[in-house]
Amino acid sequence: MNILGLETSCDETAVALLQVQGDNFVLPINLVSSQINLHQKYGGVVPEVAARAHVETIFPLLQESGLAADGSGVDVIAVTGGPGLLPALRIGLETAKALAFAWHKPLVAVNHLEGHIYSPWLSAIKPSFPALALIVSGGHTEIVLVKDHLNYQIVGATRDDAAGEAFDKVAKLLGLGYPGGPAIAQQAQLGDPASIPFPRPMSDSGDFDFSFSGLKTAVAVYLKQHPEAPVADVAASFQQAAVDILVQKTLAAVKKFQPQALILGGGVSANLHLRKTLGESLTARHPAITYHVPNLEFTGDNAAMIAAAGYFHAQAKRFVNPVTLIASPNLRLK
Ligand code: KG4
Ligand code: ZN
User: Of 89, 131, 183, 273, which residue is the least packed, with the fewest Cβ within 10 Å?
Assistant: First the structure.
């Protein structure tokens, strides 16, 4: 089955063609056009600016992909239906609907978080079920029990800021620019992670929820009191606190739900310290549970992961009607 994936939920316009034969997932087309340069001067993503850039980019990307103009070679179209920025989501959605009409192809709508969960299916070794997924991105931080394909139970979530949002806000406080995650990670390599004892919010809450806004505030207060603090030490200590809390809560959930596999996904899963610490902690305590992280190219937003999740929608015959499909900016996993 050949799945055309489209993703425009935030600040990446992405087009991919995924070919699935049994367990073999091949990606002849995988294009991502990032808008980071456009949003940098605002210090964050501006929805209308994002939408305008998606409009200008999506058809040139389809053209560049080399797909046949009549849609031959495509069996199913998969598009991100939400969550995300409404004006941005609409561009991918309307494009997908138009192509589904013109080409007479079936359409599936994928939850963006589901895409991040399915990003490890783009690697050779696939997770088994039940799986537990830690999804950490700019907009979301969730621990999800994946009982089987397309069967989700959210067991923990952030009560305020997402993990990536905390990286972005702390980077802003440190004058490191946008997006903050990669900049913090780079600075952290040069600093001492034990130099500043930032709090680990909600570590004793007894549930699997997170809070990152208190951690960000703690960094802001510290910087006010210590304006000369070395940026690298602040970055390393903040990153250590964020990773500690993510790993602690995830391993507590692993202990409770005893999954076959642990998945790490979302933009923050590009963080090498998080990838390594979570993997090492899992192996030390639960050596039989397999650990799955996407290749670095599939950590941030991309259309390949949407096509991968879309494949399982198509297998389950969960097709949607292009006439009635609308964007769902607050779509939840269920
Ligand atoms: O999944 P994603 O590309 O977009 C959303 O769905 O939100 O995630 C973007 C987030 C941003 O907050 C960015 O700062 C963060 O991922 N990020 C990182 C790293 N690379 C990207 N955070 C920590 N360390 C990184 N290396
Ligand atoms: Zn994302």
Answer: 273
Single-letter code of the amino acid located at 99: L
**Is 115 touching ligand 1 by the criterion CB < 6 Å?**
no
For 151, residues 6+ apart whose C-beta sits below 8 A from its C-beta are none
The count of structural domains within the chain is 2
In a domain, 323, yes or no: no
**Is residue 31 assigned to a domain?**
yes
State the CATH number of the domain containing residue 6.
3.30.420.40
Q: What is the pLDDT of residues 49-88, one digit of tens each?
A: 999 999 999 999 999 999 999 999 999 999 999 999 999 9
Q: Is there an atom of ligand 1 within 6 Å of 180 CB?
A: yes
Domain span at residue 38?
A: 2-118+298-315
Do residue 302 and residue 288 come from a single domain? no
User: Are 137 and 244 contained in the same domain?
Assistant: yes
- Identify the band that residue 41 occupies on the pLDDT scale cut at 50, 70 and 90: confident
Distance 162 CA to ligand 2 centre (A): 11
d(CA 126, CA 131): 11
Cβ atoms of 285 and 251 closer than 8 Å? yes
Ligand 1 atom nearest to CA at 179: 14
Position 329 in a domain: no
Question: pTM (2 decimals)?
Answer: 0.97
From 40, 268, 272, 273, mutation site for ligand 1 pocket: most ligand atoms within 8 A of C-beta? 268
308: closest CA among 116, 146, 58, 106? 116
Q: Are residues 151 and 241 in the same domain?
A: yes
Same structural domain for residues 70 and 147? Answer: no
Cα separation, 334 vs 325, in Å, equals 18
Nearest residue to 14 via CA among 300, 326, 265, 310: 300
Residue from 26, 27, 25, 8 nearest 16 by CA:
27
Q: CB within 8 A of 308, min separation 6: which ones?
A: 3, 5, 18, 25, 115, 118, 119, 121, 122
User: By C-alpha distance, which of 173, 147, 146, 142 is closest to 157?
Assistant: 142
